[in-house]
Amino acid sequence: MSAADLPVEIEHVLVTQEQIAQRISELAAEIDADYAGRNVLLVGVLKGAIMVMADLSRAMSSDPAVDWMAVSSYGVGTKSSGVVRILKDLDIDISGRHVLVVEDIVDSGLTLSWLLRNLNSRGAASVEVCTMLRKPEAARVEVRVKYVGFDIPAEFVVGYGLDYAERFRSLPYVGVLRTTP
Ligand code: 5GP
User: Does the N terminus or the C terminus of the chain have fewer Cβ atoms within 10 A?
Assistant: First the structure.
């Protein structure tokens, strides 16, 4: 895509649509192989994970079950605090299930570490994480993320499910938001 086609708010494209498609099929194959013989339940975190969930689940050959949670993370500005409230809980009882949490992005990892504690306390047989994007700060927290699409720099990104004030979720690529007017 040429720079002329980008919305003015997008500084540049960080991960292209083609790179996403390629990585999704690699991750799907890896996950299918790792969960061979076990039924995996994909748990998406609304709303950011909608695109990665749609693409990943369709790229998998094992017909995974899918459920969703919505959480709100209290924080200052764009930083989360790890204090989390459930806005929408799972419909499915996960006790004894092999859960794979599907995330859009892991930044501080605080939201995710709370979510993992919560899911583990419900007696899941296993809980692993797949995230499309991971920022450098995530490496500093004790959260095991088994499947990572792309490690990206510490910049605010939008597109492929990620928003800024509910905009840009439907962009098919991941772009860096222009910060100066
Ligand atoms: P954490 O608890 O890992 O710091 O926060 C993760 C959540 O913060 C993500 O699920 C996402 O909603 C939001 N977030 C973190 N970094 C970005 C970013 O670069 N762009 C957007 N749009 N949201 C982000």
Answer: C
